[in-house]
Amino acid sequence: MTDKLIATLDKAGVRAISTDLWGIFFEDISYSGDGGLNADLVQNGAFEYNRADSAEWSNYSFWRKIVPDGSFAAFCIHDIDPVAVENPHYATVEIEQAPAALDNTGWDGMVFHAGETYDFTAWMRVRSGSAMPVTVSLHGDDGSIISETTITVTASAWTTYQASLTVPESGEEDGKAGASVSTQGTLRLTFGGEGVIDLDFITLEPRTTYHGLKHFRPDLVKALADLKPRFMRFPGGCITHGLGMDNMYHWDRTIGPVEHRPHNFNLWGYHQSFRIGYYEYLCLCETIGAKPLPVLPAGVSCQNTSQGPVPVAQEDMPAYIDEVLHLIEFCNGGTDTEWGAKRAAMGHPEPFGLEYLGIGNEDLIDDVFKNRFQQIFDAVKAAYPDIVVVGTVGPSPSGKDYEEGWKHAREAGLPIVDEHSYQSSSWWFHNLDHYDHTDRKGPKVYLGEYGSWNTQLINGLSEAAFMGRMELNGDVVAMASYAPLFAKNSHHSWNPDLIYFDNERAYHPYSYWVQQMYATTTADTAWPVAVEGPSTLRRTLPDTVRLRIAGNAKADFNNLTVTTASGETVNLGDVSYDGRTIDTPLDLHTDAYSIDATVVYYEGKWGMDLICGDIDGKNHNIVSFGRGHSVRVVRDGTAYALAGTEVSMNEVLPGTTWQVHADVTGRGQAMKLYIDGTLIADGTEVKDEPRRTVTVSRNAKAGETYVRVVNAMDEPVDVDLSQILAGLDVSAQSAATATATILAGNDPYAGQVGEESPTKPVNTPLDLMDGTYAAPAWSFTVIALK
Q: What gap in Å lies between CA 364 and CA 422, rounded to an integer?
């Protein structure tokens, strides 16, 4: 017999909700900027790569020097008399016997499309010798020439040279191989004369754009536009406040001529050219219909460094506050203002209409932060009282920073605060009520970064369930954005991500479709709904007990023992761990056990794990220790913390010794962790996990009511919606002509990182005359009623 749920609407509980609820958050992580959204195919075209970006990089990284037999050429790097002092390095090629060439391989090769035109630009000058012929050519996967043209460089002063190259549609043309698509192509500059030539700021961009938006890769912009975001938060994230003062993001250094935008290293392990700077971000927001939400540092650097955050010196704060105020003027000022005139000179005389401004990101909420933040906040309120400032409450939805952040937000009278939460699917299901009791009189919430720890269907369903409750609490949850937004395959700094891509296409995991299903059915009103029937999951957990040591650290586990509740003891002896995963020989069957060891910690930035229970299955446990100590449960393959300590910003000193004792009971549903005899973590899992939800909202302007149903269980369920339909006066005609968008699959663990989701949303007519909706197993449905 099919399970049945009865959904009951509380009509009196109706509440107005935010109409800016669903947005996106862009941070240059995982090659999202250069090599991603940035359409430029040339990597390191300004010759500014260096060891600060990556330990193995230099000024000539990603350039290949070619000197055929019989030729002689030397390739140098200079910084005297550059194009721009902000980015002083450039290439010098000394040619005594031509020809010689430079190849650029781009980001994992260059893709050239049949029929596309590519625009080439470079700054060049002849230092000695006569005019220098430079052949610009596009080469296919096999090295054959796809398109070429020749530029003659005559100027002895830095000059911009441009050329266009078109890839033939098909077949052969003038002896060139007209490939339809090249995936591992290169750009080659061949120098055909003797002399010395300087080169800098070399670019190659496809001419095709998304709605005229230059310098952006059109398919990735389309992926954003299809999400229908109400806002876009940018440019970070951690890169906003950076690793130290020299790495802090200054918005005004990312506008104007690209040559004069000083490059910097990206704390995610690569380079920032700022080809896409603040002006371009604002144009992107305008193009996709999203309100801009720029985030500026709160006058302090990132706390996630070994020495913690460093503030802007007090004597420099007036200048920094001016920088903040200048951004607002740049966005909203008239052309008769200094910064509004600069915006107009860039081609945008109309204001961008900035409403929101973020100050800070995941900051350590200490007295120095509060001091710097308050100065900025007060200045913005005084100069621009209509701007809504979004504050920060740390990196997670609990802990000291979270509590101190909320306390400060209330005391300062902040309108909105930015929360972050990366969790397992089980955590999201268990915490659907997270915002039910948020103070409606205090600051509103922006859940600026969140996601479930994988790209499987179960992760998307957990997000769908939580988003339904965020929508219900949209009177206090003002905004939300999944994070991270983009990741280039083979360059993942973080997983999961909302959109994966390579040089050819974008890939949409399940979370993307969930976001789209909400953002294309936005509402302004919501009602509470009670669900009666089998809506929760109670797991049958295995009694298998095995033990694995894992983590990027080095330590000794002396006298490692496991003792069962019945008194059986297994002594695993002394185990030396060198950072490579160790599966111990332990193999027991018991409902409860304890683990003991003397741990001597030698090396490791963050810490390490004892993974215990059914370690090869999707449900087991983890004891973590290092900068922070915690006990965690793994459910559906990803973990969440039952309890633990704050993560310290100071690395563990070599030789640190801990007496570790962990108790695991109820087949892993309860855990305790003792360090040196002191109980520091104690948690118990709630046994029943909500897996079936129904939420209701309405868009008055569109004249539509939305019923959202999540069934994250392995059997279909009949959902009785008759009371909801009657309570909202849904007509018989509307019920008979409803539509349903259904995202479903047979396997909750289907969906791989970096790949397209195995299934996608399907739109179908729906007849609800009998008031019942049959929700498929493992599904998320949005029912639209006119």
A: 18
